Amino acid sequence: MDTASSSTSWRAVAILVGRLVFAAVFIMAAVFKFIDINGTAAYIASAGFPLSLPLAWIAAFFELALIACFLTGAFFTEAALLAAAYVIFLAFAFHGPSHWQGNQAEFGFFIDHFTFMAGLLFAAVHGPGRLLAWPRTILGRI
Question: CA-to-CA distance for 49 and 66, rounded, in angstroms?
Answer without folding.
Answer: 23
